[in-house]
Amino acid sequence: MSSEDWKRQLVQMFFARLGVIVTVNLIVLAIAVAIAFLWAPTYRATASVMMRDKTPQPSIQSIEIAESRPVQASRQDLASELEIINAPELTMRTLICMSKIDNTESSRSISKENIWKEEKPTAQYPLYGIYRKLNQTLQDSVSVGLTPLAAQTRLIQERLETAVVPQSTVIRLQLASKDRKWAEQTLDGLLDNYLGYRNDVLYPGSQGSFYDDRASTYSERLTDLEN
Fold first, then answer.
1. So what's the pLDDT on residue 63?
2. CA-based nearest residue to 127, from 30, 34, 43
3. pTM as predicted
């Protein structure tokens, strides 16, 4: 008898609040439809970098000719490559190559109009346009004191995702953006400049600036964590 009373009360509560339940579901449905049709989609450009096996050089002091067997890239090698790919200098070099720079204009003082940047689809997606206007004020406050080149470098690094594929020597890169063409061309430019920058880093004359830059980056992160 008590079980039937509990079920009856539950049904009565459901029908008593049926209007509220239907209203909430309609609001959620309307928001979902608005986001689906009025919010710009996010695209992801992907790329992969495969580390080749290292071939050890035979010692010239060895009497017997030893067979050279490839040595698989270690975790330390992959970590080093990740640091090179995520280095701000590589992103900055890519932006300099892809931006519209006048011959008389310094690469460090590229104007905001000439910097390589994505196109925001605010006209096609009104809801996203409203969000962009509200978010632009916040971005401008965060980027105070930064040059357009430094601000755009930070933006790309925040959107760039790099990770090592498990059980492999492949590094996967992903760059998200509302502008599909910008994401593809930026990631292509990053990979085009990657080998040249990698050679500069591995060359002894350029190692100092690379490690100085990484040290300053980690120092800034530690300062942010302490604050």
1. 44
2. 34
3. 0.64
Rounded Cα gap, residues 156 and 148, in angstroms: 12
How confident is residue 148, by pLDDT bands cut at 50, 70 and 90? confident
What is the C-alpha to C-alpha distance for residues 156 and 193, in angstroms, rounded to an integer? 15
Q: How far is C-alpha 8 from the geometric centre of its chain's CA atoms?
A: 55
Tokens 């992969």 belong to 48
Residue 104, pLDDT above cutoff 50? no
Contacts of 226 (CB under 8 A, 6+ apart): none
- For residue 170 the two structure tokens come to 């492949």
With cut-offs at 50, 70 and 90, classify the pLDDT of residue 180.
confident
CA geometry: angle 46, 115, 212, nearest 5 deg: 75
Contacts 24+ apart (CB under 8 A), 16-20: none
CA dist., res. 73 & res. 76, Å (int): 8
